């Protein structure tokens, strides 16, 4: 597949993860009735949004490291919670994994070739 497809997958999964985090902690299954401050975890996902949409390689690099926090939170809550919260946690794990894989594949597909590297020097 081409880098453009991986960029599209990464963009869609990042936006879906933002909406999942907001919906989960504000309406669907918050830790406290009426919403939770844990919804602020979605704000941290806004930082890489424009870099991902524009195809900035550096953003893909640091986002792939940053996503581990969302993956670990999803895994923890998927094994400790029940009902809708557990299903949402599984969704967070799936979206985080998809986003991580698409970031890595985008970086591989868009890396400069040897001839491009030598032209820069």
Question: What would you say about this model in short?
Answer:
By secondary structure, this protein is mostly helical. It contains six helices and no strands. The chain has one domain (3-120).
Strands, helices and their partners?
Elements: H1 3-28, H2 49-54, H3 57-66, H4 68-80, H5 84-110, H6 114-120
Q: Describe it for me?
A:
It contains six helices and no strands. It has one domain. Helix 1 runs antiparallel to helix 5. The protein is mainly α and 121 residues long.
Number of strands: 0
Shape: elongated
Fraction of residues in β-strands: under 5%
Radius of gyration: 16 Å
Please tell me the overall pLDDT: 92
Helix content: over 70%
Task: Provide a count of the helices.
Answer: 6
Series of secondary-structure elements, N-terminal to C-terminal: HHHHHH
Output the keywords:
74% helix, elongated
């Amino acid at each position: 597949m081409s880098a453009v497809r991986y960029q599209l997958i990464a963009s869609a999964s990042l936006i879906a993860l933002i909406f999942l985090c907001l919906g989960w902690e504000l309406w669907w299954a918050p830790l406290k009735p009426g919403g939770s401050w844990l919804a602020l975890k979605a704000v941290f996902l806004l930082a890489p949004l424009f870099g991902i949409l524009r195809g900035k390689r550096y953003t893909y690099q640091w986002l792939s490291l940053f996503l581990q926090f969302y993956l670990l939170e999803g895994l923890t809550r998927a094994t400790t919670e029940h009902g809708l919260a557990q299903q949402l946690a599984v969704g967070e794990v799936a979206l985080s994994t998809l986003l991580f894989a698409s970031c890595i594949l985008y970086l591989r597909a868009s890396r400069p070739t040897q001839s491009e590297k030598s032209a820069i020097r």
